[in-house]
Amino acid sequence: MYKRNKKKLVTKMIKHLKTIKASIIIGILLISLIPFLVTHDSTASAALISFHSYMDLNYDPSILNKPLEIDVAMSIPITVSYWTDIPDIFSKIPYPLNNLILFGNPIGPMQKIHLELLQTPEWANIYFSSPDIITDIPFKSDGVFTKNTTLIISPKMEAPAEPQRISIKVSCESIKRINGFSFQKDIPFTPSFIPTISIQTDNPIRTSGPHQSISFRIVVQNMGNKITQVTPKIIGADEKWTTTINPPNLRIYPNQEGEFVFSLITPYDFGWHSEYGRFEINFLSEVYPISTSGSASSSESIYLIVNNNGFSLPGFEFPLLIIAFAIILVFLQKRRHRN
User: Fold this and answer.
1) Main-chain phi, psi angles of 103, to 5 degrees
2) What are the C-alpha distances in Å from 121 to residues 127, 153, 160, 175?
3) How many Å apart are CA 252 and CA 221, to the nearest integer?
4) DSSP run (H or E) holding 264
5) Could you tell me the sign of the dihedral formed by the alpha carbons of 102, 103, 107, 109, in that order?
6) Which of 107, 186, 189, 217 is deepest in the core (most CB within 10 A)?
7) Structure confidence by residue, pLDDT tens digits, 104-124
8) pLDDT in tens, 165-176
9) Contact partners, residue 114, CB within 8 Å, separation at least 6
10) Distance CA 124, CA 140 (A)
C-alpha cells in the first residue's frame, strides 16, 4: 500500500516538473523574442507573427424599397462588424506581455474603422452620422464585435428619378501585427419622381369680334426629374364658344419645353355682342412611361379670357354683301353723272 502511494506521488511530481520545465522554456523563448517583437521598424518581425482583420457592413434593404422623397432626409441604420483571427493563446499570455507581442505597446489599442463615401452626387446630400467608428480588438474566440452608425440620404429637386447607387469604402488600420483591411459596398436607392411643370402663354386676355378665330400658344417646360407626359384638358367651357387644344398630350424630357395651341371661335348669335369667355385649361403631368399600378402625378391650371365685342347678323351675310355692293355701284354712278 505504501509502495503504491509512493509510486503515484512520484508520477505526479514528474508531471509537475515537466509542466514547470515547459513553462520555463516558453517563458525564456518569449522573453528572448520581446526585443525582436516590439521593434516597430522590423518588417521581418511583422512577417513572423501577423494576424488578419475582417469586416462587414449590413443594413435593412427594405428601407430603400420605395423611392426616396425629395428634400426629405432618410436615415438608414448601418451595422459594421469587426473580427480577427488572433489565436486564443495570446489571451492566456500574462498582461502586458501579450500586448507587447501583438501591438508593441503594453496598453492594448483600439481599432478605428473609417467609412468613406465615394463620388457623392451633387443632386443629393449624403453623409454618415459617424464616419469613424472605434472598437476593441477581439481575439478569435471573442467572435464578432458590432458597431452602429447611420447613413443619411436627402435627394434634391434635381435628382434623377432613376435607380442610383452609393459606393461606400470601409477600412481599418494596421496595428503592429494586426493587418488592416478594406472593402467596398454599394447601396442602391431611387429618388422619387416630382412632376413639376412651368406654363407660359403670351397675351392671355384678348378682344375679338363675333365669329372670329383666336389661337393661344402655350409653352410647357418640364421642371421635374424624369420624362413627363403632359395632358391638357379644357374645363367648363360654354358650348357657344367652339374650343379645341392640340396636341392631345406631349412627352417632355427634363428641362425641355413642349408647345400646345388652344384655339376658339367666338359666338355668332344675332345682335350686339359684349361678352367675356373665361377658359380654364388644366394640365396633368405624369411620369412616363405610365404605370398600370398608378403613377405620381400633379395638375396645374391656367386661365384665358376673350372679350367678344361687336354686331352680328347670322344668315344675312350674303344679302348684306349684295346690298352693300349695290349701294357702292349707285354711289359710283351718281358721281359719274355729276362729273
Assistant:
1) -120, -5
2) 11, 11, 11, 34
3) 8
4) strand 257-265
5) negative
6) 189
7) 888 889 999 999 999 899 999
8) 999 999 999 998
9) 131, 132, 133, 170, 171, 172
10) 40
